[in-house]
Design a protein that fits this description.
Helices cover 6% and strands 39% of the residues. It has 535 residues and is mainly beta. A hairpin with a 2-residue loop joins strand 14 and strand 15. 48% of the residues are buried. The structure holds CU-O-CU linkage. One of its GO terms (biological process) is lignin catabolic process.
């Protein structure tokens, strides 16, 4: 194993898209930011120096950070922010993991422009468990706002309403020719006829589940969230914010130019966001004057496409990469996801939208939760997050529009070291149903079951897949449905869990687990680094 060093300078750069220039926070002046390359088992040392006027933290999304929450990054959860003029060095190993992950700012909405790919190659000499591609590349799907993204977030808070949607989707930072001023802002991938390419697709959008397709070309899904899956072919894929999907694509069509396209998946009756970002799959030698062919994307509200796509995801579960699904459960958790309305004296109409788990809207403290836990500081958080909602009700029945208030709190759930946890996330019709991509820090989990309507604890577990369920770090809870995940709590620390739609995170759709230390010398949280930013 090697040690790889990276320098991340957080700087404000002038960036132009859609004929519109604005100052944006970037890493090293690049949008998307630099890719981190490593091999399984390597040690990464990333020095982040903050030259911008914003507080900053960086999260390595999907890196397990074994015993090492100090390098995880969510602001006020595992660290206080790196202030303007300050710096912090993230030290971490990528052990027992290989594939595509990504990094992003984990404070306010700054990840809109502060993000990039993490590519972890298998150990030297270890092949992929699928045909070796001729070449590989990252495709980062994102969003662009003409307005300052922090102003968009604040405007949402002030009005007490959902903030504006973005002005464009992007592929590797570029919206493509269906948007104004595409000349410099179209990404093209040149391919050779007959060769196979590995595309590492990342959804870095703030608030949109996305469909992705390539005109004329079928894709073979081989990996999700840096875990290998049983390969299957598909003409389109769906990817939630936070997720990654690796596909093989063979340049087996008539030499030409083909659009790769992405647009939102949204199966609720709010105004449909139809904007489509495109990039070009360019066969070598074909003149760039040839007009590219457009792919057929699923309809924006195609719930059944999403369900059947998700249904095809299975862990590879080979002798070398077994799916170690917990078969027994020590701790059963049932969390309802709700939207709500709370009083807000500083908001223009006196109320604001909130979101909650088990009716609790999470409030971040002024110090970092991990420090408070490690040093046993009193009064920062309570360890009484409830294992189930205060009352049971018909979660997904007719919309519940009364008594939408939630309780505010910094309440965490204590989990015994090495216990096995089953968590059912249940969407509700509090205000309205909606799909929510949930991300757990510090772990991968197995998605053992999912369904529409109310979870039935008597019947649904009988249908769980305990053989080869998909293993991931972010899972979409379907609109008006539920998802069950299992994991073994073998990583001590304070681990954030939240909806990866940034708008919902801002509204409080988040909580954290305190996983206790074990008894052994290798079962405790490591000591904090000396340069951990002060609170
Ligand atoms: Cu990708 Cu808590 O984040």
């Amino acid at each position: 194993a090697a040690t790889k060093k990276y320098q991340f300078d957080v700087v404000v750069s002038n960036v132009s898209r859609l004929c519109h220039a604005k100052p944006v926070v970037t890493v090293n002046g690049r949008l998307p930011g630099p890719t981190i390359y490593a091999r399984e088992g390597d040690r990464l040392i990333v020095n982040v120096t903050n030259y911008a006027q914003y507080n900053m933290t960086i999260h390595w999304h999907g890196v397990k950070q074994l015993r090492n929450g100090w390098a995880d990054g969510p602001a006020y959860v595992t660290q206080c922010p790196i202030r303007s003029g300050g710096s912090y060095t993230y030290h971490f190993n990528v052990t027992g993991q290989r594939g595509t992950l990504w990094w992003h700012a984990h404070i306010l909405w700054l990840r809109a422009t502060v993000h990039g790919a993490i590519v972890i190659m298998p150990e030297q000499g270890v092949p992929y468990p699928f045909p070796q591609p001729y070449q590989e590349t990252e495709l980062i799907l994102g969003e662009w706002w003409n307005a300052d993204v922090e102003k968009v977030e604040q405007q949402g808070n002030l009005l007490g309403l959902p903030p504006n949607t973005s002005d464009a989707h992007t592929i590797n930072g570029k919206p493509g020719p269906l948007f104004p001023c595409p000349e410099k802002h179209t990404y093209a991938l040149e391919v050779e006829s007959g060769k196979t390419y590995l595309l590492r697709i990342i959804n870095a959008a703030l608030n949109d589940d996305l469909f992705f397709a390539i005109a004329g070309h079928s894709m073979t899904v081989v990996e999700i969230d840096a875990t290998y899956c049983k390969p299957f072919n598909t003409s389109a894929l769906v990817i939630a914010p936070g997720q990654t999907t690796n596909v093989l694509v063979r340049a087996d069509q008539a030499p030409g130019r083909y659009f790769m396209a992405t647009r939102s998946f949204m199966d609720i009756p709010i105004p449909v966001d139809n904007k489509t970002a495109t990039a070009i799959l360019q066969y070598r030698g074909v003149p760039t004057t040839v007009v590219p062919v457009m792919p057929q994307l699923p309809a924006p509200n195609d719930t059944s496409f999403v369900a059947s796509f998700s249904d095809q995801l299975r862990s590879l579960n080979s002798p070398r990469y077994p799916a170690s699904v917990p078969l027994d459960v020590d701790r059963r958790l049932f969390y309802t996801i709700g939207l709500g309305v709370n009083p807000c004296p500083t908001c223009l109409n006196g109320t604001r939208l909130t979101a909650s788990l088990n009716n609790i809207t999470f409030v971040l403290p002024q110090v970092a939760l991990l420090q408070a836990h490690y040093y046993d500081m009193k009064g920062v958080f309570r360890l009484d997050f409830p294992d189930k909602p205060p009352t049971s009700f018909n979660y997904t029945g007719t919309p519940l529009t009364a008594n939408l208030g939630t309780s505010l709190g910094t309440r965490l759930s204590r989990i015994a070291f090495n216990s096995t946890v089953e968590l059912v996330l249940q969407d509700t019709n509090l205000l309205m149903v909606e799909s929510h991509p949930f991300h757990l820090h510090g772990y991968n989990f197995f998605v053992v079951g999912t369904g529409i309507g109310n979870f039935d604890p008597a019947k649904d577990p009988e249908t769980f897949n305990l053989i080869d369920p998909p293993e991931r770090n972010t899972v979409g809870v379907p609109t008006g449905g539920w998802t069950a995940i299992r994991f073994r709590a073998d990583n001590p620390g304070v681990w954030f869990m939240h909806c990866h739609l940034e708008v919902h995170t801002s509204w409080g759709l988040k909580m954290a687990f305190v996983v206790e230390n074990g008894d052994g010398p290798e079962e405790s949280i490591l000591p904090p680094p000396m340069d951990l930013p002060p609170c």
